[in-house]
Amino acid sequence: MMKTSCLLAGGALLAITGLADEWPLVTMRLAGSPVRAQEKTRRFVAINAARPGSCDAYWFCGADGNAAFPEVERRAGIIASYRESCEKAGIEFSYQQGWTLGHYAQPYREPATAPDPSRTFVRTDESFARSRFGEKLNGYCPRSPEVLAYEEGLIERIVRGAKVRAIWLDDDCRLHKEPNWSCFCDRCIAAFNREEGLNVTREELSRRLFEGEEVDEIRGKWVNFNARSLALFGAAARRGADKADPSVRLCLQNCSAERYYSGLDYRPILWELSGHGRVKTAIRAGSGFFCGEIVRMLTGKLRGAMIESERLKTYGDWIGSCTYENDTHPREVMQKSSEAVMIENALALGAGCDALSLYWWDDHRDEPLEYY
Among residues 73, 161, 71, which one has the least CA distance to residue 118? Predict the structure, then answer.
């Protein structure tokens, strides 16, 4: 399977969309391989460098993942070692934060069995979200001071150490109903009551949100509260970036425009990531559709991309791009043909997106570089 052919075709399609030169057209997303498999990473970067037009940006990864700050700095130094080869080839040198609030959140452990604090940031009980029943979740509270302080310090160190052009927060920066990435901790309940002028308990809030046939107005208040909670996380990321390089772009990857539990839209967090309009931001629309046979999943994904691209136009000139995610993750990529990837790219552009992002090689699912 020759991915290069579909990427070149995607680049040709993008040439007609009129995307401003300051934003990349075709982006390659990476997981942790730039840190774990450095020699092979340099080899596949060279593949794109030798083929102008096949790639306009790389989102490197691997410096976060609950790493302690000294470990973040070490990994950021490794990421920085790829900058020169990218810049020589005219490829934007950027980063994606793969773990924000939910992906592989660190399970809570007692101090006696906790990870090595020199390599892993050991979370206290205060970081973890709570379910609507008060149970500890394997995800983080977006209002936790510990979570916000870590995000600020993490982004500062990645920007300072790797000197990337942009950082894209992954799509686990969201809230769900159940079972993960939702938070009904005492802190969030108290903040909700304070901001909305209410006095509800966790039990009452849960009942009014999830039980009964009548639509309770508190549901809209809770959705908007969730949007404000995520915006606080975005503001922490912006503070960290500004300490190292105020010009760095911070952007958001989302799952679907219709996941309203995180808010009616993503404008609140995007506004914070942009520094209140000071630095342009962008969104990556869509996720899923790993297998080319499940066409119904693609139609839903494209519908979400259409909604996202249209509502972004109403925000203002501080929005720079709407990038589509073509989910070609290495663990699934053989389930899509080159033609299927190319057709999906074309449909995404027709849906209103003006750029594409595709997953690239990863050492956890090693594939021959000839595929690339």
Answer: 71
**CA distance linking residue 122 with residue 139, whole number of Å:** 14
CA distance 165 to 197: 42
Amino acid letter for position 178 = E
Where do we find the tokens 């680049």? 11
Q: Crossing angle of helices 3-14/338-350, nearest 10°?
A: 20
pLDDT of residue 261: 84
pLDDT tens, residue by residue, 247-279: 999 999 998 888 888 899 999 999 999 999 999
* Tokens 């952007």 sit on residue: 251
The C-alpha atoms of residue 38 and residue 13 are separated, in whole angstroms, by 32
Measure the N-to-C terminal CA separation of the chain; round to a whole number of Å.
8
| Cα distances (Å, whole numbers) of residue 44 to 34, 50, 51, 197 | 11, 10, 11, 55
Q: Which two tokens stand for residue 179?
A: 């079972």
Beta bridge partners of 96: 168
